[in-house]
Amino acid sequence: MKNLGKLVLAGMVVLGGTFTYAAPAFAATAGTTTSKGDITFTTDDGTAPTNPTDPTDPGKPVTPTDPDKPTPTTGPLRIDYISNIHFGEQIISGSDTTYKAKYDEVLTEDGVTKKHVPTFVQVTDNRGSNAGWKLQVSNEQFAAGANELTGAVLAFKDARLNSTNLAKPDNVAAVILSGNSVNQDVVNAPEDTGMGVWTNTFGTVTGQDADSENASVTLKIPGETKKVASSKYVTTLTWTLGDTPD
């Protein structure tokens, strides 16, 4: 009987060992220390303007093919690009007529493939102050020497802002320039909006051929306005970027 008792006791030990959980042993901390990370900001002097970006696919660079493209401004708050507006050759009409602008032609990122995009303006704000900005435009009447297109109205409609950023400014859906118009609002970026690169387009592309026209950028000329054949009528638009938004 004594031997039997020993066997039972041994079995209990084995069974107990089967269900017993042993907590892991933790190593003692030998010591702690700290390290640092740092960054220092310098001002973007704007001497290297931001290249134009595709206004229909923000973030992808494009190269406008217009040989007479406007000169960009400089500084951390700057205008990178503005489309020239070409209406081409038109037959003289004695009736009120509205002409559509040509789309902008650009080269895509590969530098070879051509693409048409809407008339657009591009603004970069790299100040870091998040203070906001305002874009305005003024113009002179279309003229060929001393001959003006009296009563002509240049209109930009269907504006759309695009960026890889999310802090969206406010744009004006339609900008109407009736000749010698002064400081018409185009985009207003209140405080904490408009940082980074933004494009403001007028209209959308409905065709990719060279003859496609933008119905959102138009020139309306009264029928009674005097028109001189074989004369190129030109207007100068002045785009002003200010650091005092509404």
Automatic annotation (TrEMBL):
Signal peptide residues on this chain, from the entry's feature table: 1-22
Segments of this protein annotated with the region Disordered: 34-76
Domain WxL span(s) in chain numbering: 29-245
Biased composition, class Low complexity, residue ranges: 42-76
Keywords for the protein's UniProt record, in alphabetical order: Signal
Pfam families named among the record's database cross-references: WxL
Keyword Signal applies: yes
Protein name stated in the entry: WxL domain-containing protein
Organism in which the protein naturally occurs: Listeria cornellensis FSL F6-0969
Lineage: Bacteria, Bacillati, Bacillota, Bacilli, Bacillales
